[in-house]
Write a structure and sequence with these properties.
CATH class of the largest domain: Alpha Beta
Distance between the termini: 10 Å
Shape: globular
Strand content: 15-25%
CATH topology of the largest domain: Rossmann fold
Largest sheet: 7 strands, parallel
Structural class: alpha/beta
Helix content: 40-55%
């Protein structure tokens, strides 16, 4: 069977792109299907590229701005409808050609019907699926109603949201990534769905330092004895990165740095007074205004940080001038602690990455974690589950008590090798049992059998 996995973009470091790679691996290796990526941009992946599906396709960007800005009058609404229909018809032609040329039997859209990021693309795909009666497994990583920014500017957009986000046709299976979404989709739309959690490559060899990544600290100008706090998520506001800045500021206090200098770290390195705790962020910067506020906070609290996406990509590569591009996984081999302070997540890709990397995790207990992940028995350094916004920079903040407690637990994980290994190995075994590629095959089996 030929399956098309569709997204606005693939081959990037965002959670949806990474999860698509896992589904593709299972569908090809465990079910012997052929999988083709279809996207607006391919990044470093292979597949078919239709630029009109892209998040940055200019007409789609302009349509989105009109759809979710100020209220439109009747004439403006009519013009917007013509613009959407015109772009939609163009995309449908390209989609039908893609189906014919690749003999597509099944579509697996990823977030195409979750967020109205490219309205013509979503509507075009929905209409083609309906007209061609193609079997579809609709993979919903999120829903538009979970974000406050999607307020329709007119009745037309409200109608589109109700009809296409997500649609529900014959031979159309809905998949969600957390139990809360399953409940909400049923209550809001009346649609049944299958819960398939995010997974990771626990069967693959552990990530380790090797001849390629051994020098990773050098281009980042990080001393071998510095402590790396790795924030592997994209840079967007809901990731709550400011909470880790507060944590590092607490760790930088004289009495806490003295604790770190009195004995060797868990791996034998000597952390001296001139060494630093550094927050590194190798993933995509998607909210530059938020990035600026983080930088202001880091400077105010004297926390060292690095936005270093230019050194990292989906896969390793090396240019002719010998400048290296490291994979995201390489960053884990150099990290001492993983920070995952997300205020809101559909599931938690980077959480599983940290578990796979056998690293301690500093975590804000967001709702999906509390409901679907934490109950499995994972142990983390908790930042609690309550926060408020500061007036000065509009950033999240938690109580001083939580920050101080997390700082002491972090110090323990940096110094106590025995306790550290006990926790990270326990987390690893839970992850391997519940959230592996093998487990994904079992989750997908009933869906694939219905195609």
């Amino acid at each position: 069977m030929n399956i098309a996995m569709v997204h606005f973009r693939v081959g990037e470091l965002d959670g949806v792109s990474l999860e698509m790679d896992k589904w593709r691996k299972v569908l090809e290796s465990q079910f012997n299907h052929k999988v083709i990526y279809l996207a607006g941009t391919l990044g470093r992946s292979d597949g078919c590229e239709i630029p009109e599906l892209s998040l940055s396709y200019p007409p789609a960007v302009q349509i989105k701005e009109k759809a979710f800005s100020r209220s439109l009058d009747e004439e403006q609404e009519e013009i917007l409808e013509l613009e959407i229909q015109s772009e939609k018809d163009l995309i449908k032609i390209k989609l039908k050609k893609f189906i014919q040329e690749n003999e597509i039997n099944c579509f697996i859209p990823n977030n195409i019907f979750c967020y109205p990021l490219n309205l013509p693309a979503s509507i075009a795909l929905a209409e083609v699926i309906s007209e061609k009666k193609i079997s579809t497994i609709n993979h919903n990583h999120d829903f538009f109603w979970e974000r406050t920014i999607y307020k329709p500017s007119c009745q037309l957009i409200k109608k589109y949201l109700e009809k296409y986000f997500p649609p529900n046709f014959e031979n159309f299976q809905q998949v969600v990534i957390n139990s809360s979404a399953k409940k909400n989709l049923k209550e809001r739309n009346g649609y049944d769905s299958t819960y398939v959690p995010n997974v990771f490559y626990f069967e693959d060899p552990d990530w380790k330092k090797d001849s390629f990544n051994a020098d990773l600290r050098k281009p980042l100008n990080i001393n071998k004895n510095d402590i790396i706090m790795l924030q592997a998520t994209r840079i967007v506001e809901r990731k709550g990165i400011e909470l880790i800045i507060d944590l590092i500021a607490e760790l930088n206090k004289i009495e806490n740095k003295e604790k770190l200098t009195t004995s060797p770290l868990y791996d034998g390195r000597e952390f001296k007074k001139n060494n630093e705790i550094i927050l590194i962020m190798p993933n995509l910067i998607e909210d530059f205004e938020y990035k600026t506020r983080l930088e202001i906070k880091c400077k105010e609290l004297n926390v060292k940080y690095l936005f270093c996406n230019e050194f990292f990509a989906h896969q390793r590569s090396e240019n002719d001038n010998e400048s290296k591009i490291y994979s995201l996984w390489d960053s884990y081999t150099q990290a001492d602690i993983i920070s995952y302070p997300s205020l809101q997540e559909g599931w938690g890709n980077q959480f599983l990455e940290a578990v796979k990397a056998r690293l301690p995790i500093v975590l804000f207990e967001y709702e999906v974690y509390k409901e679907d992940i934490g109950p499995m028995g994972f142990q983390t350094i908790s930042l609690g589950s309550e926060y408020k916004q500061t007036k000065k920079l509009g950033l999240a903040t938690i109580s001083n008590e939580k920050i101080k407690s997390a700082a002491q637990e972090t110090i323990k994980m940096l110094l106590n090798k025995e306790e550290r290994e006990k926790i990270i190995n326990k987390n690893y075994q839970i992850g391997k049992q519940k959230f592996s590629i093998t487990a994904l095959g079992e989750y997908l089996k009933p869906l694939v059998l219905k195609i």
